[in-house]
Design goal:
The complex is a heterodimer. Chain A is built from 4 helices and 5 strands. By secondary structure, chain A is of the alpha/beta class. Chain A has a single domain, classed as 2-Layer Sandwich (Transcription Regulator spoIIAA), CATH 3.30.750.24. Chain A has a 5-stranded mixed beta sheet. In chain A, helix 2 links the parallel strand 3 and strand 4. In chain A, helix 1 runs parallel beside helix 2. Chain A is globular. The termini of chain A are far apart. Chain B has one domain: Histidine kinase-like ATPase, C-terminal domain (Heat Shock Protein 90, 2-Layer Sandwich), CATH 3.30.565. Chain B is built from 4 helices and 5 strands, in the order E-H-H-E-E-H-H-E-E. In chain B, helix 1 packs antiparallel against helix 2 and helix 2 packs antiparallel against helix 4. In chain B, a hairpin with a 5-residue loop joins strand 4 and strand 5. Chain B is α+β, with helices and mostly antiparallel strands. Classes of the chains: A alpha/beta, B alpha+beta. The interface between A and B is medium-sized, with 22 and 29 residues.
């Protein structure tokens, strides 16, 4: 099932609605990359609240989205990692430290706004 | 409750089906939400190895009973693919021949209580996992 991506001002919000197959994850990568260019987005939020499993493939793909969008000048924040999922990711040995994460959508938006303000102030 | 299931694994959707099936079995056994997630994640790893390396295979799930009445779920992921030449390397973090992160087998092993791997080049691969519920 495709992941809906909403445009909200300078941000894109991808809300994962249900369990993702590998094909869905790869499609999400392509869709986000396409929309970052089309809408000149500065930040992306990927909401994984609905995911009950983040295995090595999903984790690697989300990290890939974060790295690829950064190369296009946009920051990605992963929000809503459930406590059990976080536990499993750590046991699995998944390294996620180079990816921004936030508790939920609200915190994710606040984070993007704060880094956007920093870069505006710096100009 | 039916106590055994077989899920044929040929597509990435089957990987999702296998882990959801295990989750509902574990739920009926009273597994904690954390244990359900650990089990589902481990199944995702071993089932993906089937689609990635062998193309097709199956995941069998059944309820097992141990000492002092505790219950668990046994997962057998089996394929007739190319097998694994160096088991020691395959169980090492970060080793991969498939372009992934190399966390599949070593990671799955850390997520469950029992882990067994039988494989040989040309003879397919069998991974057996058991996750025990917390004793009542």
């Amino acid at each position: 099932m495709a992941v809906p991506i909403l445009k909200q001002g300078p941000w894109l919000i991808a809300s994962i609605q249900s369990a993702l197959t590998d094909t869905d994850v790869l499609r999400l990568q392509d869709d986000v990359m396409g929309q970052v260019g089309r809408y000149r987005s500065r930040g992306i939020i990927v909401d994984v609240t609905a995911l009950d499993v983040m295995d090595s493939f999903v984790s690697r793909s989300l990290r890939g989205i974060a790295h690829m969008t950064r190369l296009r000048g946009a920051e990605t924040v992963i929000v809503g990692i459930q406590p059990e999922v976080a536990f499993a990711m750590v046991q699995l040995g998944m390294k996620f430290e180079d990816v921004h994460t936030a508790l939920d959508l609200e915190e994710g938006l606040a984070f993007l706004q704060s880094i956007s303000k920093e870069s505006d102030d710096g100009e | 409750m039916s106590e055994a299931y077989r899920v044929a694994i040929t597509t990435d959707q089957d990987v999702v089906t296998a882990r959801q099936r295990a989750r509902s079995m574990g739920g009926e056994l009273g597994f904690t939400s954390t244990d359900l997630t650990l089990l589902a994640t481990a199944i995702s790893e071993v089932a993906r190895n089937i689609t990635a390396y062998a193309g097709e295979g199956e995941v069998r799930l059944r309820v097992v009973r141990g000492d002092n009445g505790r219950q668990g779920i046994e997962v057998v992921a089996q394929d007739e693919g190319p097998g694994i030449a160096n088991v020691e390397l395959a169980l090492q973090d970060g080793y991969t021949t498939g372009g992934g992160l190399g966390l599949g087998l070593p990671g799955a092993r850390r997520l469950v209580d029992e882990f067994e791997l039988q494989t040989a080049p040309g003879e397919g691969t069998m991974v057996r996992l058991v996750k025990w519920g917390r004793s009542a």
